[in-house]
Amino acid sequence: MQRLTRWAALAAVALAAPAARADFNAALADYKAGHYESARRAFAAMAELGDCSSQFNLGAMTLQGQGGPKDTGTGVGWLEAAAANGCQQLVGGRVAALEGTLDASGRQAAADILGRYGHEALRAQGVVEPALDCPGRVAAVALQAPAPEYPGGGKQRNALVVGELTIGVDGYARDPEILLSVPDAAFVAPAIEAWMHSRFSPATRNGAPVQSRQQVRSLFNLAGAEPLWSSGAYKDARAAADAGDAQAAYLVGVAASADAALGLTPARATQLITDAARDGNPGAQYWLALQLRTVRLCHPDNRATTWLEHAAAAGEGAAQLALAAELTAGTPTGQQVSRARSLLESAAASDSYYVRKHVLALLGASPLPGLRDAARARQLAALLAAGDVQSDPQLFEVLAAADAAGGDVRGAVARQQTAIRKAHDLGWDTRALEERLGIYKQGKPWYGDLFGE
Predict the structure, then answer these.
(1) Quick one: which of 44, 59, 266, 311 could link to 286 by a disulfide (CB 3.0–4.6 Å)?
(2) This prediction's pTM
(3) For residue 267, is it within any domain?
(4) Is residue 324 part of a domain?
(5) What strand order describes the sheet that includes 212-220?
(6) Are 397 and 342 contained in the same domain?
(7) 204-233 burial by CB neighbour count: b if 16+ within 10 A, else e?
(8) 384 part of a folded domain
């Protein structure tokens, strides 16, 4: 068995070399140095995403009891999953010899692993070969999209901002989230301003209008400025992406998914992002989770949670926020609320406007007392209020909720009135906002979903 484990590490590094994954190489180095616990944890994280080399190594270590309990059934299950995910040659005939030694509980343990991490199981969950299509669903279409204003000051450059919006059945855009801004973040606020003033025909599902979450872009093109994609930096990123660099693959993939000028097909752009996600890039993992959630009605077995868990563990604030929201949906347990609160505290450190806005909404107005923290909400509100984004009515809604939670009635009323004025200017239905204003005028906080329809 010791020989089997050594073969696992040596054979797996050869299989992983084309991807040049730092995480895999680090796990392998830990294994060779005898740091079995850290190696096993790292292989397990990659095994969950269908990496057959990591599944093979994890199975071999589990059979030997290196870095954790020895468990023949679970070890066989990981070897079977490795074979199903592309490492059949590496597994060879080892499984057949081991299966005969299993009792009923061992066979069940092997079946459980294969049932969760085999190729078909991971494909159904959207972990490998994710299905991002949605038959019967027609995306929202922009009817009116004002060009974004170029930010003042600084060098005149072309730019691209990619984001996601909620498009209501009324055709209005809400809740902007930035996924990419190149060459820098100076273009985010004007892009959001333009999106908030856009009008859409809503998405439809089987002919009926539905609310949707949709990717959008803003291009900043200046006459005489260097074309965005002709720069040396982009060419270097494209070369790095093609060579397997996960961060470069994510950036190029997202940019290409929004701008055909890059010359990549949508399928190639998605594949770059998927490869980056499987290679451990948290931004790519979160992007995939967003897409899977968008098509959840068409593919109910898709588990965006898998990608969210990995991205959140790597420090992606948007994924931490999304997980906290999932944990507290319905009737959560005390343990779920406690974990969600911890995730929110981590997410609050994000520099994302979208993440901070949603964290503030939960800290200040969640219907769950275990999530609310008026003092922390006021701290986060000060950061948001001083930001560049001032065109979003929901910003002033969450600021008002934070003021009310902290007992500042006058501040809550003033900010809610600002939210109503901005929402009215955009054409939104303001009845829910006005109801909350009435509660604040009574000197009471309001608790609920600030982003609900």
Answers:
(1) 311
(2) 0.88
(3) yes
(4) yes
(5) 173-182, 159-167, 212-220
(6) yes
(7) beeeebbebbbbbbbbbeeeeeeebbeeee
(8) yes
